[in-house]
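Proteins fold reproducibly. Look at a concrete instance:
___
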Amino acid sequence: MEISESLNKNFWQKAFQGPSQNVSCVRHAVMALGAVHWQFTTCDHDKPSSLEAFTLSHYNDAISGLIHGRGTANDAQTDLVTILTCCVLFAILESLRGNFSEAIRHIKSGTELIANHKPSTYLPNHDIEELAAIFHAIGSQVGLFSPNRIFANMTPFMAPKKKYNKPAGKLRDLVEAEDVLNTFDDVVTHISWDLEQDRDHNNSECEKQWAILRQRLRVWDIQFQAMVKYLVGTAEYTRNLERIVNLKIQYKLWELLLAEESPAFDCDNQPTGNLDAVECSLLLDDLDRLWTPSATTKLTIIMVFISPPFDVTCLTAYIVAPLNDNNLAKVKTEFELGACSRFQPLLELKITKPPADYIGKSHQYMRAKENEAGRKSPFVVIDEDAVKRSAVWYVDAFADDEMVEEGQAESTQVVVKLLVKTECLALTYINYEIANIDIDEDLDNAEVERPLKNDFFQPLVSDCGGMDMREQQRDQDVEVTAEPGEFEETREKALLENFSPQPDKLGKLKDEVARAAGLLAAWTFIDEAQPVDMPDGSQKTFPAGSVVLQQKYDPDFPWPEYKWPEGSL
C-alpha cells in the first residue's frame, strides 16, 4: 500500500530499480536496505546477525560514493536526483533499524536540498517533482508528531495537480479523491505549526480551522462513497481496487485522528475515535483480497464474519428539564444498557434541546407541532422523571377513532404516551415495532385509568415486566459466517434431542474464535453460507464449507465506547 499516488509501484520501480543497476551508490544503498529488510522480517532482532557486517559495508560504500561523487559507472558528478534517491533509501533503512532520529535527519536533508535547489532551466524536472512528492508525503506524516516545523515546504516543487474546468460538487474520479484527501496533510501542518494553539476558546482561529477540516472530511466521505458505489461492478473498480482500499484506510485514519472528543495531535490527550469490529473486519477483508488472493490464512481480527448492521432507528429526545452533566450522563448510561449500544444497538436517541415554544407546553402541544412539521414518528421527552423515577416519556400518536369508540381514550385529541424506564425504552420500542405487545397493553400494566385523558397520571413506570436489562444483554443473538477451521460440529444424540426439528448435526464457533470475536459459543443449527450484499454495493463471498451459525454477543467483551448520533447532547 502506498501513502499516496506519488509512492505507487511504478514510482518505486522507476526511482530505484533502474538506478540500482547503473548507479553505484544507489546499488549499494539498495543492497544494504535489502539486507536490513530481510533481517527485520525473518530474524531475531535481539541477536546479532551475520548480515550486520554486510549491511554496514554497503551502507558505507553508498555514503562514500555520494561524498566523492562516484555515483555513476563513468565517475561523473553525482546529481541531485541520485542524492535524493539515496536519502529516501537511507531513511527507510534507518527506520527498519529503529534509528528514527537518523531517518528524520535524512528526510530533513532531502527536503532542504530540494528547497535550496537552483535549476539551470525553468522547464519542469519530472524526477525532482516525483522526489519532492515522496519527501512531502513522508515528511507530512512524520512532521505531524513534532511541535515545530522541521521539514521544508515541498508543495512548490511538486507536479501541479490535475486541473478541472469547474467545481462539480462531487469527486469526479479517484485521482481527485486522492488529491483532496492528501491536501488535508498540508491543512494540519498549517494549523499545527502556523496558528496560535488556543484550544480553550471555540471561536479561536485554531479551533475554527479544526472544525472546517472535520467538515471537509465528512463531505469527502459522502462524495467518495457515492463514487465507489457507482464504480462497483465495473472494470474500473477492479482495476483500481488497491487505490480504493488505500483511500478507505486513509479516510478511517483521518476520522480517528480528527475525533471531536479531543484535539488532534495532542500527545497528552489522544483522540478517542473508535474503529469498531465490523469496520475493521471489512477493511482487513479488502486488504486480504489484495495481498493474499490464494492464501489460507486471512487477515482478520474478528476471524468470523458478522454482517454490517442495517440502519438503526433513531428517535429524537427533547430535554425539557434542567439536567446537570451527571444527570444527563446517568440517562445516557441507562439507555445504553437496555439498547445494547456498545455491540448491537437496538435503538438510537438523538438528545437535543426542544424548539423554544415547546418549553412549558404539554405533550399534546408538542405532538401537534411535530405532526405539523412532518415529523410523525414517536419522540421522547426527558423531564424531571428522568431523575426522580429513572424514566422518560415515549410519546406515540394521537388516539384514533377505534380507541375512542372502545372507551380507551376520551377523544382523538388525546396523546397516547407511556412513562417507561430509561433502560427499557429500546426494548419497548422494538416490541411495538414487531407487534410483540402494544402500548395499550403497557398502559394497562402501568395501571393507567381509562378512558385516557391528556396529561394523565401513570401510577407505575413501565419496566418490560421487571426484566433484568443486564441479563437481557446476554440474550442478543447474532448470525455469523464461519469458514472451515473456525467452527466445530457434533452428532452427539443427547445434544441433538434438545433441538426441534431434530437436525443431523449441530455446530458452534470454536471457543477461542468466539472469544476473539466477542461472542459466546453455543451449539446451534447449521446453515450453508450464502453471498452477502455489502453497503458499498459489492458482494461478500465465502470459501466452500463455510456455514452460518446463530451465536450470542458477550456483553463482558471489551467493546468500544458507544458513539452517540452526531448532534446529540
Remarks:
- Residues 205-231 form the longest helix (27 residues).
- The chain has a mean pLDDT of 83.
- Residues 475-553 form one domain.
- The radius of gyration is 31 Å.
